[in-house]
From TrEMBL:
This is Dual-specificity RNA methyltransferase RlmN. It comes from Comamonas kerstersii. The gene is rlmN. It is found in: Cytoplasm. Residues 97-339 form the Radical SAM core domain. It holds the Pfam family RlmN_N. The lineage of its organism: Bacteria, Pseudomonadati, Pseudomonadota, Betaproteobacteria, Burkholderiales. Specifically methylates position 2 of adenine 2503 in 23S rRNA and position 2 of adenine 37 in tRNAs. m2A2503 modification seems to play a crucial role in the proofreading step occurring at the peptidyl transferase center and thus would serve to optimize ribosomal fidelity. S-adenosyl-L-methionine binds at G165, E166, S197, S219, L220, H221, N301. Reaction proceeds by a ping-pong mechanism involving intermediate methylation of a conserved cysteine residue.
Length: 373
């Protein structure tokens, strides 16, 4: 059985090379070839001893994910659908901007959290991705884009774990992938430029702060427990008080001096003036008057199964103004890649559901959200 070297961070690759009787520096050379140069053929690695190259040919591979489709938006956003086997496929999205290139990476085939407004959650859950499958998305995208743009410079400057899946529920595969993204012998990304988005898996937030503290984004979406229980079912296990306390603990180790809260704007559900005031009160309660978070308001990207609608531009603007007037740094996310279903909450891939999501979501839709009119 061959070993896919994309599954290893540098320490893992060192251990693997030592098992072959090789010194540590060989692992570093190999790591650079794989991630910095995008090599998949051991014969390309001319500074490795021939004996090691021959050994690797019989025992190891550098194997990415097959690309099923690639779509490019009018705004330059690119979405890839990757085959992860057994009838499952995951999506990744590259978002180019003037000052950065961001790759949105998936961590699971599907998602078991089941947020009401998320297309991925409605599709259900099949399995966790391996470290190699997480990294393969970055490995492919970075080296594809360099060839596409005819540059040897790094193209992807930011990675957000905001694709399909809840990263914290795939923790053992997530952390080695993050370490590889940060490693100077691989992609050399700053901890400030790698973001993990979570719906609020509190114990794993605490572990990440110790194991690999990168930037943190929390899917908030509601200012009170009753509403959040319905929109983000995980809230029933880790309610807002536990989540907010975990955010404050994470801040002590975070590379930035703030946590980002994501807030999907749903017409008549969580976008009313009283919701804004509740949100302000929640943030002030835990911040004790100090700035400690940023709010990112996300216009909802509708899909039929959700039964939800996007807030009007006027409602989003009024909500943002209320937060800003209270001294909370607030942004409204620009919708990118909407024409290729690559915008926030739209990634669905193709998943063989093992969680009977359609049945669960149908029941969830019967629970009234008590919209305020």
């Amino acid at each position: 059985m061959t070993t896919n070297l994309l599954n290893f961070d540098l320490q893992g690759l060192v251990a693997y090379c030592e098992s072959l009787g090789e010194k540590r520096f060989r692992a570093t050379q190999l790591f650079r070839w794989i991630h910095q140069r995008g090599a998949s053929d051991f014969d390309q690695m001319t500074d490795l001893a021939k004996s090691l190259r021959e050994k690797l040919k019989t025992q190891a591979v550098i194997e990415g994910l097959p690309v099923i489709t690639q779509h490019e938006s009018q705004d330059g956003t690119i979405k890839w659908l990757f085959d992860v086997g057994d009838g499952n496929a995951v999506e990744s999205v590259f978002i180019p901007e003037d000052d950065r290139g961001t790759l949105c990476v998936s961590s699971q085939a599907g998602c078991a959290v089941g947020c009401r407004f998320c297309s991925t959650g409605h599709q259900g859950f099949s399995r966790n991705l391996t470290t190699g499958e997480i990294l393969a998305q970055l490995w492919f995208a970075e080296h594809f884009l360099r060839k596409h743009l005819k540059t040897e410079e790094r193209v992807i400057t930011n990675v957000v774990m905001m694709g399909m899946g809840e990263p914290m529920q795939n923790y053992s595969a997530l952390v080695p992938a993050l370490r590889t993204m940060l490693d100077d012998h691989a992609y050399g990304l700053s901890r400030r430029r790698v973001t993990v988005s979570t719906s609020g898996v509190v114990p794993m937030m605490d572990r990440l702060s110790q194991d690999c503290a990168v930037a943190l984004a929390v899917s908030l979406h509601a200012p009170n427990d009753a509403l959040r229980d319905n929109l983000v079912p995980l809230n029933k296990k880790y309610p807002l008080d536990e989540l907010m306390q975990a955010c404050l603990r994470y801040l002590e180790f975070a590379p930035r001096d703030f946590i980002t809260f994501e807030y999907c704007m749903l017409d008549g559900v969580n976008d009313q003036p009283e919701h804004a005031q509740q949100l302000i009160a929640l943030i002030e309660k835990y911040g004790k008057g100090k700035p400690w978070c940023k709010l990112n308001l996300i216009p909802f990207n509708p899909f039929p199964a959700s039964g939800l609608l996007r807030s009007s531009n006027a409602a989003v603007a009024a909500f943002a103004k209320a937060l800003s007037d209270a001294g909370i740094v607030t942004t409204v996310r620009k919708t990118r890649g909407d024409d290729i279903d690559a915008a926030c909450g739209q990634l669905a891939g193709d998943v063989k559901d093992r969680t009977r999501a359609a049945e669960r979501m149908a029941k969830q839709r019967t629970i009234p959200l008590q919209p305020v009119r």
